[in-house]
Structure prediction request, 324 residues.
Amino acid sequence: MKIKKYLKFWKYPRLVDERETLIEERDSLKDHLKSLNQEKQEMIREKNALYERLGQLSLTIPELQEISPKLLDISVIKNKARQFRVQLDAEKEKLAPDNFGWYPYNTLTCFEILELLLTGKNRFLLELISEKPIVDIGCADGDLAFFLESLGCKVQVVDYAPTNFNLMQGVKLLKTALSSSVEIHDVNLDSQFLLPEKSYSLVIFLGILYHLKNPYYALETLAKSANYCLISTRVTKFNTVSNAANRVDLSAIPLAYLLDELEANNDSTNYWIFSNAGLRRILQRTGWEICDYITVGNTENSDPASRDGDERAYCLVKSRFYQD
Prediction:
């Protein structure tokens, strides 16, 4: 303390007493805050334990599956997705459009992977979601969005018609047929894009990252717009197939492999295949904290382009920018 401050306290003893009192009150408040934080953590642990037990019980007691979707374990949501798929397939067969074809892959199978991915409180995926909407980016025919809407979520879809499988005719037809309130937006993610809403609870970003010319910009923009994001993308351990002479192990190197124009699946919209270290690095640099992370497929011998060498990373990430 400076000499002038010492003199002030010497001249006015009452200030010394007040200062000591304030210091004691400050220390007491610090102790109280620490105690509150400990109580909060204990309540979170108890809540997670209750949710875990509820999820186990809901597998064997059908009545529990009709409670609020926010209280459903991801395994129950997966089963509901299977049931919804049957209904949706019947609806698509009934509509039978003759001017376009439906997206050929079952996007609702993502819940099979999410059951493996999500741990702890994250298994109650919808509990993470606030009143703000979910956005499904790269929606195909919107199957995932329509399913989440059936669970009571407010959902938007974002895709780019020129690169969508059927120019977004499928999602628009299903919206009408299902009398859905899902909002449909046509956005080019290879531009300096903005999302329709300022903020979202959750972004679903499955199988899109390797189709983008500028994945860094896209991930950073999403981190500034959403609290959570579910991401899947192809990753690679090696630079080429197993019998190539110039094969290099890339798994520990934070890089992205730039595909040749038709190198992967004869699809010129495939651009960047990350190593696992590269994906983790770009997520960290663009403002995301990894909550859960797994890889599936050829996890031992993957390469960027061959069908047999396909490895996929799935992760749940939380934004460090987002303010709820």
Remarks:
- The chain has eight helices and nine strands.
- The chain has two domains: 12-61, 67-317.
- The chain has a mean pLDDT of 88.
- Helices lie at 3-11, 13-58, 74-95, 110-117, 143-150, 169-177, 215-223, 276-285.
